[in-house]
Amino acid sequence: MAATGLISESEAWIDLKDHVAEINKTHLRELLTDTSRCEGMIKEHDGILIDFSRQRATQKTMEKLFSLSKEAKLEEKIKKMFIGEHINSTEDRAVLHVALRAPRTEHIFESGRDVVPDVWEVLDKIKDFSDRVRSGTWVGATGKPLTDVVAIGIGGSFLGPLFVHTALQTEPETAKAARNRKLRFLSNVDPIDVARALNGLKQETTLVVIVSKTFTTAETMLNARTVRSWITSALGYVSNAVSKHMVAISTNVKLVKEFGIDPENAFAFWDWVGGRYSVCSAVGVLPLSLQYGFDNITKFLEGAWSIDQHFRTAPFENNLPVLLGLLSVWNASFLGCPALAILPYCQALQKLAPHIQQVSMESNGKGVTIDGKVLDYEAGEIDFGEPGTNGQHSFYQLIHQGRVVPCDFIGIIKSQQSVFLRNEIVSNHDELMCNFFAQADALAYGKTPEELRAEGVPDYLIPHKTFTGNRPSLSMLLPTLKPYTVGQLLALYEHRIAVQGFIWGINSFDQWGVELGKVLASRVRTQMNASRTKGKPVEGFNHSTTTLLNRYLKVRGL
Ligand code: F6P
């Protein structure tokens, strides 16, 4: 590699740049006629099948991407992650979310300490606590069982658990386990979110779980205080109301205690778990076990672990997360497609895209290498998505005829639900999946002017009805959507994102970019308080912010 150390100066990167011209001479219409190419691009592991044949890539492209992975020392970096090296160097932390799903028998070390027993100590505590709450052994301050849970948290302390909860809500076995129970999330500091989360709940039967790695996040702490008041306003006359109705998940036991929560009712995790990678820690496992039972949630952990092992050991040619990561780098850095549409044909996966959006964009939205050198290529991916077929009636127009946006189509073979109508030829699920199969081909093949003419389309409409095709996608089929497969899906995307970051040479595990906005919000908060309590005029901001703030304060009457 050249002296600057940027991967973009490596031979492998330059070779891939040159290779773009060759790929530009092909069209997916032709690439898809090559059966042996297609066969080589369909990969399977533990029930998950991914068809990469609609990527704009050939065997030669794959070889060049593998050379790039060597140049980027991908294998070494994956290994370092699994053995607990402090690869998050700006925070001097290990990146060990994989240890959260390790079986009891495993040994994973961080700074010389085997963390697996620590993980299981917390998991055992969660099992015990969630069993007691679910069975009615742990009761509220007035002796009533706690049937409803409100989990307060934001970002990584919210999106992952919400994704898994949404995926399991309609699955018959987990739905049965959740009968007569509610799980709500409160994330936004917006009072509307508070009202929505508490609507219809009774303090006597509600357990509040405060989820915050740092226990300092402004939104979460304000919401926690608001909900504590909600609890004490109704139950304050009972001495142990807070300790019976509020528990916490945090790495910061000191602040948990200061908040008034009994440390006995705190569930720990560790600084080697990044917030956005924390759904397999108590952050997700506690609220989800309260709702669905601990045994169901261990299956979710097992699914993630299965992909962890595959990622750690499978040769790159068959390694699903590695292939996902390398091809996404190919799309973003070489073919000029910086976005990804995540399109599950499954309503239960409606929160997959928002979760992956955070994991990906907070991890890889960086402008410098891990050593602090300014990138001369763009890292990161713009992720968005919506379940099909809804998305088809929303933003697919742009994907078909506007910008080129690589798509991940995700289909489930056996739906969680079956709706059969006697006079219908296909079931709802089959109809859904017809669209899943059709969309990938529509993007790949498109429709030519010749085809349109042959159909008798008038000349003036030909440009409007032409689809260029040649738009990359991949199709993923999961057998079912159960806790185990939800875990697999999560780990696939987490590791895909790690692969991207390892190739781009960035630190995917810090998030300094979120800090500045927090600091500026705190300055505004100080001014707002000074204006409210001492009538002080707004000062120290630019003309625009001063005008906006003054308008706000005036109309609010502050
Ligand atoms: O602001 C971003 C962030 O720091 C995320 O990385 C994190 O998941 C979220 O805020 C919440 O942080 P905490 O769990 O410490 O409240």
Calculate Rg over CA atoms.
25 Å
Strand order of the largest sheet: 1-2-13-12-10-11
Unreliable residue stretches: none
Q: Quickly give the structural class.
A: alpha/beta
Number of helices: 23
Kindly report the average pLDDT value.
96
* CATH-defined topology of the largest domain: Rossmann fold
Bound molecules: 6-O-phosphono-beta-D-fructofuranose
As for the number of domains, it is: 3
User: Could you give the count of β-strands?
Assistant: 13
The CATH class label of the largest domain is Alpha Beta
Q: In the CATH hierarchy, what is the superfamily of the largest domain?
A: Glucose-6-phosphate isomerase like protein, domain 1
Q: What's the story with the biggest beta sheet?
A: 6 strands, mixed
Give the fraction of residues assigned to helices. Answer: 40-55%
Relative strand content: 5-15%
Globally, the shape reads: globular
What would you say the CATH architecture of the largest domain is?
A: 3-Layer(aba) Sandwich
Query: First CA to last CA: what distance?
Result: 60 Å
Can you give a write-up of this model?
It is built from 23 helices and 13 strands. The protein is α/β, with parallel strands linked by helices and 558 residues long. It has a 6-stranded mixed beta sheet, sandwiched between helices. Strand 3 and strand 4 (113-114) form a beta hairpin. Helix 16 (352-364) packs parallel to helix 21 (483-504). The longest helix has 22 residues, at 483-504. The structure holds 6-O-phosphono-beta-D-fructofuranose (F6P). 6-O-phosphono-beta-D-fructofuranose binds at residues 154-157, 212-214, 217, 220, 275-276, 362, 511, 514.
